Amino acid sequence: MTRSCSALGCTARDTGRSRERGISFHQFPADAAQRRQWIRAVNRVDPRSHRAWRPGPGAILCSRHFAEGDFERYGLRRKLRRGAVPSQVRHSGVIAEPYTSHQKHAGWSCSRGHAVALYSAVYLCYVSLI
């Protein structure tokens, strides 16, 4: 079965063709602290429970969600650096926008008019669920 990138809106699938195009795929880390950082960076919410999404054992992210500096090169191959956290995760074309503490009020909107919701003690643009 072909696996797909877990980032919302990403259409990358783990196929030979995508790998030929230079897209690599990376499983969520086993280390609990780093795994939490990846989950926060992906910023997905379970649509049923409205709680943070939990990746399954086969969940992956594609290389498009990491900065080029997150990789080490070994000849023609490249490897994700230890401790790398996805920083290029987009939600419906909008990068999640963190809010400062003085903006923590229900009903506020982000600069693009999307609803704001509490996620991991930070208010983020909630466009991914609209």
UniProtKB/TrEMBL annotation:
GO-annotated biological processes: endothelial cell proliferation
Coarse class of the protein's main subcellular location: nucleus
Annotated GO CC locations: nucleoplasm
SMART domains: DM3, THAP
Compartment(s): Nucleus, Nucleoplasm
Stored InterPro entries: THAP1/10, THAP_Znf, THAP_Znf_sf
UniProt domain THAP-type: residue ranges: 1-89
PROSITE patterns with a match to the protein in the record: ZF_THAP
SUPFAM superfamilies: Glucocorticoid receptor-like (DNA-binding domain)
Superkingdom in the source lineage: Eukaryota
Keyword annotations from UniProtKB, A to Z: Cell cycle, Coiled coil, DNA-binding, Metal-binding, Nucleus, Transcription, Transcription regulation, Zinc, Zinc-finger
Entry's Gene Ontology molecular function annotations: DNA-binding transcription factor activity; sequence-specific DNA binding; zinc ion binding
Similarity comment text for this entry: Belongs to the THAP1 family.
Function: DNA-binding transcription regulator that regulates endothelial cell proliferation and G1/S cell-cycle progression. Specifically binds the 5'-[AT]NTNN[GT]GGCA[AGT]-3' core DNA sequence and acts by modulating expression of pRB-E2F cell-cycle target genes.
PANTHER family: THAP DOMAIN-CONTAINING, THAP DOMAIN-CONTAINING PROTEIN 1
Name recorded for this polypeptide: THAP domain-containing protein 1
Organism the protein comes from: Corvus moneduloides (New Caledonian crow)
